[in-house]
């Protein structure tokens, strides 16, 4: 199984390729999420009721062997556990430790309006873009499921209890507890309390994100996030560009003079190199034009 996982088209993929393949087509995970949104909303206990492990492994293997679409007649519980399996096998947590801490700090705020605002800021300001997209996509599926709780018996809290341990791994691993939380280095009872506290916090955070999904992931926030991401890319590009650092380079004639130099020049290569170095240092009187 380890060898198959190492070469798998489904499990162990990096966060960047969790939702789509290199060619831009939807991944196994994305297709499974779409299936649950379409066929899983009326299935009682969806995401809570476990499927047979062998059936989950078999469905993953079938996908890798060419059965790359989910049919309407498939067992929703198997597909739901496929989603969990993929998330569990991601090489890194969907929500990194620093982002878990930011969410936890925001969740601890007493006043609801301030708490939701802080959680929103934590997501859009501290998350790497691939992680934010993945979290939002998983939450979208969970929100769709919980919005049909009258039929499937899965409230936001129930859905959160099933999925929070997979999404907020570092929180449950004790990697981002706040100073006033239980001391996980104490005796067994203290560690049990810390673990229970972390699990409760994780469930509550995800449940809150589900309940406030439409407010947090509204068009305004997504647009702001898109603009922020674009500006980061532009800033990164300008930092790497020597032309941007020296906007007057082309105006002072150095580059033009270099371009006008005859390609058949008999100058000694070392002297040409020296001339170019002199130009880049700002000395116009280089021996390139002696």
TrEMBL record:
Biological processes, Gene Ontology terms: signal transduction
Q: Which InterPro entries match?
A: Rho_GAP_Regulators, Rho_GTPase_activation_prot, RhoGAP_dom
Gene3D superfamilies in the cross-refs = Rho GTPase activation protein
List the biased-composition ranges (Basic and acidic residues).
247-258
CDD domains, per database record: RhoGAP
Residue ranges of every copy of the Rho-GAP domain listed in the record: 17-217
Q: Residues annotated as region Disordered?
A: 228-290
Name listed for the protein in its UniProt record: Rho-GAP domain-containing protein
Q: Which organism is it from?
A: Gossypium raimondii
């Amino acid at each position: 199984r380890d060898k198959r996982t190492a070469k798998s088209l489904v499990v162990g993929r990096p966060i960047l390729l969790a939702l789509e393949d290199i060619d831009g087509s939807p991944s196994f995970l994305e297709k499974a999420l779409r299936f649950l949104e379409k066929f899983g909303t009326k299935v009682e206990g969806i995401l809570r009721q476990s499927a047979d492990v062998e059936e989950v492994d078999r469905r993953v293997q079938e996908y890798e062997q060419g059965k790359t679409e989910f049919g309407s007649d498939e067992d929703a519980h198997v597909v739901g556990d496929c989603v969990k399996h993929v998330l569990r096998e991601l090489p890194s947590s969907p929500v990194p430790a620093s982002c878990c801490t930011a969410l936890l700090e925001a969740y601890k705020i007493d006043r609801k309006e301030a708490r939701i605002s802080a959680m929103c800021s934590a997501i859009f300001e501290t998350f790497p873009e691939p992680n934010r997209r993945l979290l939002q996509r998983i939450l979208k599926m969970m929100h769709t499921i919980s919005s049909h709780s009258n039929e499937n018996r899965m409230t936001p809290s129930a859905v959160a209890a099933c999925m929070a341990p997979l999404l907020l791994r570092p929180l449950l691993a004790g990697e981002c507890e706040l100073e006033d939380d239980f001391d996980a280095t104490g005796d067994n009872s203290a560690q049990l309390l810390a673990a229970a506290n972390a699990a409760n916090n994780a469930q509550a955070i995800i449940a809150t994100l589900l309940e406030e999904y439409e407010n947090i992931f509204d068009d305004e926030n997504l647009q702001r996030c898109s603009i922020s991401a674009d500006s980061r890319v532009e800033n990164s590009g300008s930092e790497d560009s020597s032309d941007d650092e020296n906007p007057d380079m082309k105006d002072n004639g150095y580059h033009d003079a270099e371009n006008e130099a005859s390609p058949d020049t008999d100058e000694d290569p070392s002297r040409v190199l020296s001339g170019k170095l002199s130009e880049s240092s700002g000395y116009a009187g280089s021996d390139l034009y002696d």
